[in-house]
Design the sequence.
C-alpha cells in the first residue's frame, strides 16, 4: 500500500522516522532503496544514526551537504588513529598485563619498541555465533585504554588532548 504513493510523499514520510527504520525500509524493495540512496537528506540521516549522534543547534544553520561532509569527516577522524591488526594466533595474555577479563573477552597491554599495543582475545560462543578471534591495536601516546563492554562487543579507547 505504501508503494502506491508518489516518491515525493514517500520521501516526506521517511524523513519523519528514525535512521534504523529507514534502513529497514530500504531493504524491502528496489524503489525504496533507490529513493534512500539518491537522497542526500537520507544519507545524512543514516550517517547521523550510525555515529550515533543527534543534530546539534550549530548544525541547523548548515545545508544538508555541509552537515553530511562534517559528520563524515568526524567519523573518519575517530577511526583513523587506531589501527586494528587481525592476528592468526592467540597472544600470551598473562595476569600481570591483563587489563580486562570476562567470560567473552581478554584484553592485555604491552609496551613494545614501536609503542603501546593492546591485545584482544574474543572467546568463542556457540549461542551468540561468535568464533574465537585475536587482534591487536596499536595505541599512540595520546590514547588511553578505558574499558570493555562485553555485552556490546565494545572496546573503548580514549584519545586524550
Sequence:
Amino acid at each position: 500500500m505504501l508503494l502506491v504513493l508518489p516518491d515525493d510523499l514517500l520521501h516526506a514520510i521517511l524523513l519523519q522516522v528514525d535512521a534504523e527504520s529507514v534502513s529497514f525500509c530500504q531493504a524491502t524493495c528496489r524503489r525504496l532503496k533507490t529513493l534512500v540512496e539518491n537522497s542526500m537528506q537520507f544519507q545524512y540521516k543514516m550517517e547521523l544514526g550510525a555515529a550515533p549522534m543527534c543534530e546539534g543547534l550549530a548544525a541547523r544553520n548548515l545545508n544538508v551537504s555541509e552537515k553530511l561532509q562534517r559528520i563524515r569527516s568526524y567519523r573518519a577522524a575517530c577511526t583513523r588513529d587506531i589501527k586494528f591488526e587481525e592476528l592468526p594466533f592467540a597472544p600470551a595474555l598473562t595476569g600481570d598485563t591483563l587489563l580486562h577479563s570476562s567470560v567473552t573477552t581478554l584484553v592485555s597491554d604491552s609496551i613494545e619498541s614501536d609503542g603501546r599495543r593492546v591485545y584482544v582475545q574474543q572467546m568463542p560462543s556457540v549461542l551468540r555465533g561468535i568464533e574465537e578471534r585475536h587482534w591487536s591495536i596499536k595505541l599512540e601516546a595520546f590514547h588511553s585504554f578505558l574499558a570493555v563492554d562485553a555485552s556490546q562487543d565494545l572496546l573503548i579507547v580514549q584519545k586524550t588532548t
Notes: Residues 83-159 form one domain. The chain has two domains: 2-80, 83-159.
